[in-house]
Request: fold
Amino acid sequence: MAGNLDKSSAKEFFTVLVPKLFAEGAKQVDASGLAGTEFTLQFNIVGSGGGNYCLKIKDGKNLEVIEGGIAKPNLGIELSEGDWREAVTGAVPGVMDQFMNPKQAASRSMMDNAKGINGAFNLELTRAGKPSYGIKMLFNGVSQPFASLKMDLGDYFKMVKKEVDGPGLFMSGKMAFEGDMAFLLQLQGVMG
Reply:
């Protein structure tokens, strides 16, 4: 991510930097397949200096930031302020890119998959010598079904990049799962 994000507030990040990054990214992708669509991605940053920021994306190329958020976004992501800051400064590389990559934002199948999922997902990523990194996701404002995964941060990104597969990590004891397995399988179309 660009800029001096160690000192930027969540408000400055979402209301100033994100629109600039989105505009730059929108020039690099073909969003013609998203004509007539709307998708809402809301970040709920918990803690001092946090806040709720909904990114309302129309036609894959028009962004409106709604400070304070909306009631039922297509995808709500909750992070502590500390975990959010680590993501945007690159201390935990790849986390924000997964949700704000222009090519993913222009993916009709990913958007349709996210709109078709209802439920809540908790992801706990462990890190050697550091506190776990936690991300909570709520799809379309619905809290059930529920699933959670706990795994190593490095293994998670290997799985997202398809260098390893989830069943292999689970069978080797490197991934712990709780909750609704059918719901967890639905998430593959959104999370890689």
The mean pLDDT is 86. The domain at 10-115 is CATH 3.30.1050 (Nonspecific Lipid-transfer Protein; Chain A).
